[in-house]
Amino acid sequence: MENAEAISLERNHVYLLCYTRTPLEDDVYSPKLAYSMHLAYSHDGNSYTGLNHNSGVLFAKATANDNGTLNAKSLKNPYLFHMADGTFGVIAERIEHDGGNDRESVGCILLFTSSDLIHYKEIGLIHLKSDSYVSDAICEYNPRTNHYEISWCDESGHFYKNSMPDITALDCSSQPETASAFVFKTAETDIEGAVERNEIHVPNQIGNKVITKLSALANTEIRVPDTVEASSASDLELVRAVAFYNDGSSSMKKVDWDTSHVDWDFAGIYDVKGTVRQDSYSFPTAVNRADPCVIEWNGKFLFIATNDDTSIKQGFYVRESATIAGIASAGESLILDDDMYPLIKQFFWAPEFHIIGNDLYIFFAVSSGEFGSIHSHVMKLKSGGNPVHADDWEMPIRMQNKDGDYMYESGITLDMTYFVADGKHFVIWAQRQLSPVDLGSWLYIANVDPEQPWRLVNDPVLLSKPEYGWANNHTFVDEGPFAIITKENIFVTFSSALVNATYCVGMMTAPRGADLLDTDSWTKSNYPLLTSRSVAGEYGPGHNAYISDGDGNLLNVYHARGGLTEPRSTGIRRVHFDIDGCPVLDLTEDADLNRDLRCVTTKVNLTKK
């Protein structure tokens, strides 16, 4: 009977195991990354597979000091449990980023809640009414008493138990009572570096969703119509293949049809073969080019980036090509350097092309000389000008606030991006306060006047701080924002951490129609979308821009390193949208299109007009 119940459980449930990892070298997997909750899954409760590239999915938030500076925090000993309402909770010991005791967490345990084990909300510290550090804890809901029971031990090895009817009422636990040592069900795995914690079983609907959301996507099927009505080769060229992926999502792809044996002058039914088309962009597209951006202007594709090549003159170089793939071999033209204007001398960073109205602009950061004078500027192409000619660009204008004064004077501004959503014009940028204290780089948002896009029309609103361990790894940085706008959502990807192999890409999401200047409209993902573990051989990916290729594909233009210490270089990869409509940035070409499925066939019913 017990065996039958176990088989039934395996069929109807998925086992999830939470764990942390043993830290590796700082540039590989530092304590700030290792001390986070990871997830693995099993269908039989024995053999477990790590999810999300064996990277963390739940991180503790940093705390803030009175002067605004942040204290990085991490977690260890996470414990997953079922909540009374069918959702999930996680308790964990909040620690300092290096693994030491967190003085603010004496006598406390950190609580998160989740409805789907993909998205998490940090509720805060549960006060266990003790003056001792918690070294380990578990939590279960007791339906007989309608209370949550937290069993824990302190650093001296003494065990206690607290109970509370509402676990989210953080100050309402009972007094601790002496208790026996607790045990919980875990599993041994061969997952690299795993420090295993407890396992729970969840319904298939939730478990399979977690698996597909946190696993690498892959093309599993290609479909084309069985029969196509056509009267000419151009009719057949419009027929697309649908590529399906292991999460249930799909994408449309062009097909190169072989019609050499079709006689378009004679009606009939012809068997036609085709090859699903896939544009290929080998990495790197451009060596020593970081923070890249591509735009289509007057039938040509323009490429611009931060120049990391110290052997040539500093400044901004533009490449022009008839195709996106041609950018790799296109020549470069210098359009702005340190000899052109008295106040533009150094730190030519993160240029972005944007079309506003009928005009082409470049948003970029530059300094008059010192690091502390780096600021966002806007430069407009003259009417009828050629974007690869330096003389055809107007004099850059430094960004202004709504009163016409310079936008910011207590630090630096950089990485400004622009987008239009629901008829409103926005800029988002990175801003780093240097005086009176260095706060690190934070993201701000404001509206701008499209007739004067260098001028804000309202006060800046703080959008994001580098509060998670992946964002403040080695340095406190959120930067490099860029928007993806779909029918349902506005996604803003941004880059975080030190600009080395630990650089990564996070994301914020707001629904269409929301007030984007209201911080409550935005939800920030607890873990990054793109890291050094996402695509083999690409380290420190980040600072994205996006461009449509004209065939309905959105392309991610980013920089990464070909090795831990290799130069930052530009890469290009198709952006896929998963079954939830969220962007996927790590779908490699081999996973995007299964080579064994590229050849397709259809019957062409040739009719004469």
Determine the N-to-C terminus distance. 70 Å
What is the count of DSSP helices, taking H or I runs of 4+ residues? 6
The overall average pLDDT, rounded, is: 96
Largest sheet: 5 strands, antiparallel
Q: What integer value in Å does the Rg equal? A: 27 Å
Share of helical residues: under 10%
What can you tell me about this protein's structure?
- This protein has 609 residues and is mainly beta.
- The strands form 11 sheets. Strands 21, 39, 40, 41 and 42 form a 5-stranded antiparallel sheet that branches.
- Strand 6 (73-82) and strand 7 form a beta hairpin.
- The longest helix is centred in the N-terminal third of the chain and has 11 residues, at 2-12.
- The N and C termini lie far apart (70 Å).
- The model is unreliable at 4-8 (pLDDT under 50).
What is the structure about, briefly put?
By secondary structure, the chain is mainly beta.
Q: Which terms would index this structure?
A:
6 helices; five-stranded antiparallel β-sheet; mainly beta; 609 residues
